[in-house]
Specification:
Elements: H1 5-48, E1 53-55, E2 69-71, H2 75-80, E3 84-90, E4 95-100, E5 124-125, E6 137-141, H3 165-168, E7 170-174, E8 178-191, H4 204-218, E9 235-241, E10 249-262
Parallel strand pairs: 6-9
Antiparallel strand pairs: 1-2, 3-4, 3-7, 5-6, 7-8, 8-10, 9-10
């Protein structure tokens, strides 16, 4: 059965118009979600949180260096969302954000801090971890948003220069019970099939040793030294996509705990 050129032309015209309309709808949704997430962060930082500040009083007897702990008042944060479990600050990549956690690792891939549907999601801790009582490896996830929200700015870690590393390596994580400091010790790109870097349960010393040796070997930024890391260390691991949407590549950053104190 033959199809006239006129009918074929009309079909293709409607098809492409439909595709354009669908793409415009997706763009509008993305822009709305981006604006909402950005607005949320502004309100959280400027209006809702009391006492998000660095305290450089020296409380570590082992060093004379002042430690930049971050003090956070979680009262209003918890009133907004009881899933908020901590505050993450990484100056090197301009991250300053509350982090959430629930029993479903998929939920905050598509919901914002108010649990509303949002393509940008939110930065969240792995459901297997307990941020009040750290194990060997605590994992945080976030989308690689093109506007650098969530974990979209993590890739800027590759821009850190050698003379900036002492400040750039510091990661600050505060929970309702603890103020903690970490230092970056490994940065690399892997694939989504690599589950070793998000491992949180370890089967004895040899298993822990393999994890440590692996992050040392895979590090692609020599300015972040890791020759002193050991199986007794506790690590904070960041995971996000690396590249265009749909990529199987993952950017991984490991940081080790270097100090903690009670969050009074």
């Amino acid at each position: 059965m033959k199809i006239s050129l006129n009918k074929l032309y009309n079909f293709l015209s409607y098809f492409f118009l439909g595709m354009i309309f669908f793409s415009l709808v997706l763009i509008v949704i993305w822009l709305k979600d981006t604006y909402m997430s950005s607005d949320d962060l502004v309100k959280i930082n400027d209006e809702e949180v009391v006492g998000v500040e660095e305290n450089t009083n020296n409380t570590n007897n082992k060093t004379k260096k002042e430690l930049p702990y971050v003090s956070v008042d979680f009262k209003k944060l918890k009133e907004r969302n009881s899933d908020i479990v901590g505050w993450l600050k990484v100056d090197a990549v301009n991250i300053n954000i509350p982090i959430v956690q629930t029993t479903d690792n998929d939920f905050y891939l598509s919901h914002d801090i108010d649990k509303k549907p949002n393509q940008l999601g939110w930065v969240f801790a792995d459901a297997r971890n307990d941020l009040n009582f750290l194990g060997m490896n605590t994992v945080l996830y976030g989308h690689n948003a093109s506007n650098k929200q969530m974990f979209g700015s993590l890739k800027d870690i590759f821009k850190v220069m050698k003379d900036e590393v002492e400040q750039a390596k510091i990661v600050q994580l505060t929970t309702p019970t603890k103020q903690r400091l970490f230092e970056i010790v490994s940065v690399y790109v892997t694939t989504y099939e690599d589950w070793e870097y998000v491992k949180v349960y370890f089967d004895g010393y040899e298993d822990k040793k393999r994890f440590v040796e692996r992050l040392q070997k895979k590090n692609k930024m020599g300015i972040f030294k890791n020759d002193l890391v050991s199986v007794s260390d506790q690590f904070l691991t960041f995971s996000t996509c690396y590249g265009a949407a749909g990529t199987d590549k993952r950017l991984v950053i490991h940081a080790r705990l270097i100090g903690e104190r009670d969050n009074n």
